[in-house]
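Hi R.,

As promised on Friday, here is the backbone we talked about, encoded as structure tokens. Could you run it through your design pipeline when you get a chance and send me back a sequence?
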């Protein structure tokens, strides 16, 4: 039995690729038209960066952020590590007074944090 020539295989590949391309194009368009999720940044929300010195050194980013969220009462996200004890976190608050209260709660948790300071690094201006 003769093997199929490249000419007879090409139309079959084209027929299979056309539906795939249509599905990809439709999914890309539907993603663009999707509504913005409600979990996006709330109007007036404030992000405050803090540096925390852990009472017990750790490199577990998820655990550090989860503990900061639990103690502060606001969502915390991990930024970076300076060492095993010093870590940069970002606190997401509804306003500045809520962030002040969250920072106070972190400072009162002496069993978890030896020090809590505002991150005073300069940031580049957005042009």
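Update: got your reply. Pasting your designed sequence below so it's all in one thread:
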């Amino acid at each position: 039995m003769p093997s199929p020539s490249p000419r007879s295989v090409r139309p079959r590949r084209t027929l299979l690729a056309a539906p795939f391309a249509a599905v990809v194009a439709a999914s890309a368009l539907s993603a663009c038209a999707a509504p913005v999720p409600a979990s996006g940044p709330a109007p007036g929300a404030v992000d405050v960066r803090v540096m925390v010195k852990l009472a017990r050194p750790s490199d577990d980013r998820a655990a550090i952020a989860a503990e900061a969220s639990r103690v502060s009462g606001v969502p915390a996200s991990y930024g970076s590590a300076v060492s095993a004890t010093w870590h940069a976190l970002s606190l997401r608050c509804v306003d500045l007074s809520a962030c002040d209260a969250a920072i106070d709660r972190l400072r009162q948790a002496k069993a978890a944090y030896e020090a809590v300071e505002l991150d005073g690094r300069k940031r580049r201006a957005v042009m």
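One thing I noticed while checking it: Helices lie at 6-33, 61-72, 96-108.

Thanks again,
M.
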